[in-house]
Amino acid sequence: MADELVHSHDPNHPANLICELCKIFYNNGWVTGTGGGISVKDGDKIYLAPSGVQKERMVPENMFVMDHPSKEYLRRPEVYKPSACTPLFMAAYDIRGAGACIHTHSQNAVMVSLLYDKEFTIANIEQIKALPRVTEPGYLGFFDTLTIPIIENTAHEEDLKDSLEQAILAYPGTTAVLVRRHGIYVWGESVWKAKVYNEAIDYLLELAVKMRQFGIAPDGAIGSEREQRRL
Ligand SMILES: [Zn+2]
Question: How far apart are alpha carbons 167 and 117 in whole angstroms?
């Protein structure tokens, strides 16, 4: 069962990293009840957490390993099913050349998807500076607006593939896509970038929900907030 692909004492081996990150994400409430998923690319190998396994109990032996770009499984544990997120992660790898992709069922993502229509926007918040410009080198500035597209959910996760791909192509500057009443997909050049982007975006989503509770527009101009407050 090609166990040498997942057995390593190196804490930075993708199979070990996925387990470590799943515990962190579980403790943040992002992947409870086996929801969500994560995948890491290492050269021509893509590591994928399986479907239906409790994220906080994930072990390296659970991992699927796929060759890229052939998409043939190099390791496929028979007791598990591949994650339903797999075709969606492939969209980030194929279209954007991502190094890792994270999917969470964060309540902040779900709330924002209920408060916004086609896209989420937020501006003039320091945390935006953690996010990349994507279409050019460097990161967004304090005065920039972060925009994340929102796609509609489907009955089966894998059926999101077409609309996710369309959103990735329609928003060349985004590093994430929100799924209404479901969660969010975030990717990055490396596993650590994807982790930081996911954390920064979730912070901004949570902040936007709170701002709207106080009648403050998250994408409003500086100085306009005070007028919009209903205190
Ligand atoms: Zn999901």
Answer: 14
Burial, 222: exposed, middle or buried (Cβ in 10 Å; 0-12, 13-18, 19+)? exposed
Cα(152) to centroid(ligand 1), Å: 12
Considering just the CA atoms, what is the radius of gyration of the chain in Å?
18
pLDDT in tens, 15-68: 999 999 999 999 999 999 989 999 999 999 999 999 989 999 999 999 999 999
* pLDDT tens per residue, range 137-181: 999 999 999 999 999 999 999 899 999 999 999 999 999 999 999
Cα dihedral 53, 54, 60, 65 sign: positive
Q: Name the strand (E) or helix (H) holding 62.
A: none
What's the CA gap between 160 and 112, in Å, rounded? 18
Q: What does the alpha-carbon distance between residue 121 and residue 211 come to, in Å, rounded to a whole number?
A: 13
Active site residues: 126
Residue (of 126, 132, 180) closest to 153 by Cα position: 180
| Ordered domains of the chain (ranges, CATH) | 1-83 (3.40.225.10), 98-222 (3.40.225.10)
Tokens 């544990």 correspond to 77
Per the annotation, binding residues for substrate are 85
Ligand 1 center–CA 229 separation, angstroms: 35
Q: From 41, 40, 37, select the one nearest 54 (Cα to Cα).
A: 37
List the beta bridge partners of residue 151: 179
Distance 86 CA to ligand 1 centre (A): 11
